[in-house]
Amino acid sequence: MTRPGRLDYFLLILLALMWGSSFSFIKLGVHAYSPLVVAAGRITLGAIVLWLIVVLRKSGLPKGRGAWVSAFLCGILGNAVPFFLISMGETRINAGLAAILMSVVPLTTVILGHFVTRDEKLTAGKVAGIVLGTCGVIVLVGPETLSGLGGDLPYQLAVLVAAICYAVSSLIARNLRDQPRAGSAAVILTFAALSIAPVAVLVDQPWTMTWSATGALSIIYLGLVPTGLAMFLLLLMVARAGAGFVAFNNYLVPAVGVLVSLVVLGEIPAPSTLLAMVIILAGIAVANIGFSWRKKAVQITSVAPKKD
User: Fold this and answer.
1) 81: region left, alpha or beta (phi > 0 left; psi from -120 to 50 alpha)
2) Which residues does 288 contact at the CB level (< 8 Å), separation at least 6?
3) Is pLDDT above 50 for 307?
4) Can you tell me the distance from the alpha carbon of 25 to that of 32, in angstroms, rounded to the nearest whole number?
5) How far apart are CA 86 and CA 257, in angstroms?
6) Which pTM does this prediction carry?
7) Is residue 308 assigned to a domain?
């Protein structure tokens, strides 16, 4: 593992652009097709892309029953369910708002990690980050929505539930750290596709829907770039610079999502939306910086020479 260089920072920004752009293209997709069709389409195409990468790289597949169970759960909780919930949410809320709601993923992961892992316990910095992140969400959705008066509350909650699914999936994925990365990713998306594609076919019957070139191209983009290629790029970056470096995406994706929605869809963010984004990102920063300082202090203490 080498120190991140210019190429790694370029790849970090590229990955943030891929993931951040997905919300705008989901918005375009659900204007033409149902949320189920959009989610199933992007997952299926993403799985095909990853299997092509597996074949070209001659990558192995996960080994052991536990790894396959973890891959199945990641496919359901990390792809099928959240992709559908985000698509459903964006039938009523704008892409920028969806991007910011998803920024609670690392904060949720911090809370869950405290209870289900041994090496990711809460610290003062993490608690401060959680408080800031919660305040940001309250500012974002507004007091009237929290009280149930907002008509879009179910759709905002759908995206928040998707964020929780991502957090749970990321913790389950810890079980795949020693497995072939490309093969594991392909299996994960295959499980997701097998679970959601039949439902989309039976429930929505996509062949009966009116053809839309914009909607179809959006689904193709979502499958090829933010799903398939982004998954491969993520694996490449973890191998090059480590998972800690890749985690900086949590700072970039919400901002990219808002900017892309402004450029692609013309969605002008409200002042409260921008304020919420700043608060949430500050929460993530405090949580991660606090952890980094603590980790560095422990490392310095452990290597410091002992006095007689």
Assistant:
1) alpha
2) 106, 125, 129, 247, 250
3) no
4) 11
5) 13
6) 0.78
7) no
